[in-house]
Description:
CATH topology of the largest domain: Rossmann fold
Radius of gyration: 19 Å
Number of helices: 11
Amino acid sequence: xxxxxxxxxxxxxxxxxxxxxxxxxxxxIYGILGANGAGKSTMMNLITDNIVRTGGEITFADESGxxxxxxxxxxxxxxxxxxxxxxxxxxxxxxAESFIAYFGRLKGIRGRDLKPELDRVFELTxxxxxxxxxxxxxxxxxxQRVLLAQAMLGEPKVLILDEPTAGLDPKERVRLRNYIYDxxxxxxxxxxxxxxxxxxxxxxxxxxxxxxxxxxxGSPKELIGSIPPETKPLMGNYYSLDDVYLYYLGDELAEDxxxxxxxxxxxxxx
Length: 270
């Protein structure tokens, strides 16, 4: 299975959101790391065909087929795609089951097939006991798991997660990361974030984006090993991904981490 982005470009007038980005994804978790405005969400929206690309191509090939552009594949590719958007676009007056069932029907899952699929995604995200509760009563982490559940409908081969832990407190962030890791087998998972700790423990490969361009990529170990010895680690005598972020992407880390770790002012307890 292969998802390939070749010279992918997106301009908004004179603003460059993504420029000649090339990368090939296979099964596993890929962390796409960069500050706000680096081009992460633009890449996600291009892969999901929510926005029109300026240039380049996106091709997909499953285990048995030849690669084809996702625009040519159309609905066949969308059936293989799961997308968890950055913003919580939830109908909070609905129950979790009604909300997920609505998205299931949009994905073409109907009739006898719908209930077992709902059972499966609620079990995966540990929401079975609250599936009949209104979303308005959920904590921030539970709402994110509802979005993750809808993304998992139809057993997607490509799972795209755009800032999945934004706005969550540390405990809920860790819990959601664990769910993502458990769901990552036999599929391509793209996790876009500006929070280093979200990808440090679960991503096999990391892509560093800055101002719409690929700066560096590799495993956490490879990226840490690429820092020159004369660079002073943030803490102690050992380098970390925080050091990688600062070395390649600038000094946005402290500001972004502080913003992301702010717990919601009002949240229900699970």
